[in-house]
Each structure stands twice: as structure tokens, then as C-alpha cells.
Amino acid sequence: MPMFAKKYFVQLTLAVFNFGPKCGHIVKFQLILKMLAPQLLSAARRTLPIILKRNIGICAPALQKASDPIQQLFIDKVKEYRQKSSALGGKLVDTNPEIEKELASELDKLAKQYGGGEGVDMTQFPNFKFTEPQLDPINQ
């Protein structure tokens, strides 16, 4: 709890208990709002601009067009690769037999390392089968 909140919480508690049981809950609630509203507003005035600046600073580059020519070139190349890849059905773009052979050997090596083998499709999520364990009866 922040320091200003502790100080005003103590003042608020004393003020509410000074009214005693004669005072209704609505009056106590209104008193709480009157006492805490200025402190909450001042805290919001201090922290809200910082939070908004951070969020805008993070989101702004994604919302704007790239201002740097190198960034724009990178974005154009990524879009171009995505179009070529989708035209080939999601396969690698601009490959030759040597690259495809290297890819296949790397995938085989990974399949052997992580429990795959002949005929096992390592691109699919594995199917888990859990069986209930056999428990001995308690009343023996």
C-alpha cells in the first residue's frame, strides 16, 4: 500500500468511527468517497500519463508505416516471401536440391533425437493416451 494511501486510510477510519453507529452505511460511504477522491485523482494524474506513453510507445511503430527506408525494405521483403511461400503451399522459397537434402537430414536428426523414427510425422502434435491405473481395493 502506498504511503499516501496508508495516511489517508487512517484518517478515514478515524472519521468513519467518529460518526458511530448512528450514522448509516450510505453516509459513511459518501464520506469515504469525499476523503479519498482527491488523493485517487492526484495519483491517477501522476501515473496515467506514464502508462499511456509506454503503451503508445510500444504500439505506435506497429501502427505507422516504416519511416526508415531499411525498415521499409525489410517489410517489403517479408511480404514478398509470404506471397511466394503461400503460392508454393507453405514450402521453402527459392530452394535447390542441396538445401532440401540438408533440411531433410536435419529433420531426420531431430526426429531421432526426440523419439521419432520412420513414418512418424514430427510436425503433428503427439496423441497422448492416459489409462486409469489399477488400484487395489481398500477393504481387504
From TrEMBL:
A Gene Ontology annotation in the biological process aspect, one of them, is: proton motive force-driven ATP synthesis
Q: Which GO terms describe its molecular function?
A: proton transmembrane transporter activity
Q: Name one GO cellular component term.
A: proton-transporting ATP synthase complex
- The principal localisation class reads mitochondrion
Q: Which InterPro entries match?
A: ATP_synth_f6_mt, ATP_synth_f6_sf_mt
Q: Which UniProt keywords apply?
A: CF(0), Hydrogen ion transport, Ion transport, Membrane, Mitochondrion, Mitochondrion inner membrane, Transport
What does the UniProt entry say about where the protein is found? Mitochondrion inner membrane
Pfam family name, one:
ATP-synt_F6
Question: What family, per the record?
Answer: Belongs to the eukaryotic ATPase subunit F6 family.
State the protein's name.
Answer: ATP synthase-coupling factor 6, mitochondrial
